[in-house]
Amino acid sequence: MTEDYDVAVVGGGLVGIATAWGLAREGCRVVVLDEGDRAVRASRGNFALVWVQSKGLGLAPYAGWTIRSSNAWGGFADLLKQETGLDVCFQRPGGFHLALSDKELEVRAISLKRLHNQPGIVDYKTEILDHDEVAKMLPDIGREVVGASYCPLDGHVNSLRLFRTLHTALNARGVSYRPSHRVENIAKDGGEFRLTTTAGEVRAGRVALAAGNANMRLAPMVGLEAPMKPERGQIVVTERLRPFLNHPVVTLRQTDEGTVMIGDSKEESTDPSGLTLGVSATEAGRAVRMFPLLANVNVVRTWSAIRVMTKDGFPIYDESETHPGAFVLCCHSGVTLCANHALTVAPMIARGALDKAMVAPFSARRFHVPTAG
Ligand SMILES: Cc1cc2nc3c(=O)[nH]c(=O)nc-3n(C[C@H](O)[C@H](O)[C@H](O)COP(=O)(O)OP(=O)(O)OC[C@H]3O[C@@H](n4cnc5c(N)ncnc54)[C@H](O)[C@@H]3O)c2cc1C
Description:
Layout lengths: L3 E7 L3 H12 L4 E4 L15 E2 L9 H25 L10 E5 L2 H15 L10 E4 H7 L9 E5 L3 E2 L2 H14 L3 E3 L4 E7 L2 E6 L2 E10 L5 H4 L12 E8 L13 E3 L5 E4 L13 H14 L8 E9 L8 E4 L6 E5 L7 H14 L4 H4 L14
Parallel strand pairs: 1-2, 1-11, 2-8, 11-17
Antiparallel strand pairs: 3-7, 4-6, 5-6, 9-10, 10-11, 12-14, 12-15, 13-14, 16-17
Helix pairs in contact: 1-5, 1-8, 2-5, 2-8
The protein binds flavin-adenine dinucleotide.
Flavin-adenine dinucleotide binds next to helix 1, strand 12 and strand 15.
């Protein structure tokens, strides 16, 4: 069976479906090919922050790119609500990175100073607050919290509802979503791409690779590259509590449904099926020191998931020189950058070319630096 589309999006995670929705808004006929439930999928296991502070240390344009998405998020959520009636509960009340010792606060302050001292960095507000200043906004913090960094641009969303909402919107716009269509091979034949999947062949004029860490294998098929270094994160979820936390903390947030998500560890493992109890215990222990009221709360869920992580941690957006019409998109922070993918990157792909001024810093060509010696 062969079928024809303007664009085939490979990967049905947040990056793929946000891009597919944006393409459909531009009038493209779109198919999303997804491996399916056996695949390792970051989009189903993330922490749901729409986060700005700390982004860009080592690659200044990433800060501007992140802020662009953060600023677009409110309008993006409204558009989704108009189309689907579903509220993804995006909020941007400002977020905290809490410190449990003077040393932690000092390290945090130095890191933010380095970030904001970089040439070309976009100017945005972050501040270091002491315990009393933090307590004005987070009255339930424990005595051990010595202070925090705060950024008014930080926010969060209901990430699984975002996933469902995007799928509802895709369906309404006639996008063909194909689970259990693992792409095995991609070839350019004449003017079109032929994608061989586990459930038949699909043809499309353009192809957008959004297969997370699997982009590493797929990108070279169309003259692109995506050097990846996946890492694991663990999350602990509590029972529902009365609302007590009006601002997300980088490692702890209260969802719109009342549960508290704790976590965001970083481990080198790429095994998504296991949990390291010591890691969960450390995350929970720090959470209790930050908010002592969590001490007697029941944990109802815990999971691990594998981050889509490029070799240097920054996004990759590229288009192929050898296979015009092929694009690769991958990033950590696919929740934060969702608005950019839908409203900025997708229109570029629909027009057939990435806006170099905007995304050139994110080309994988940055990895082509000769090694010393
Ligand atoms: C623990 C954790 C916490 C996180 N917290 C945050 C956060 O707070 N804020 C934030 O912005 N981001 C966060 N992230 C990151 C965010 O979840 C990811 O950036 C985002 O989900 C990546 O989406 P993706 O679509 O690129 O990848 P994925 O969700 O991994 O999707 C890739 C898709 O590609 C498909 N696929 C793979 N190979 C093929 C193939 N050959 N053919 C067809 N389909 C294929 C898979 O089926 C999968 O559905 C977190 C991630 C983790 C793991």
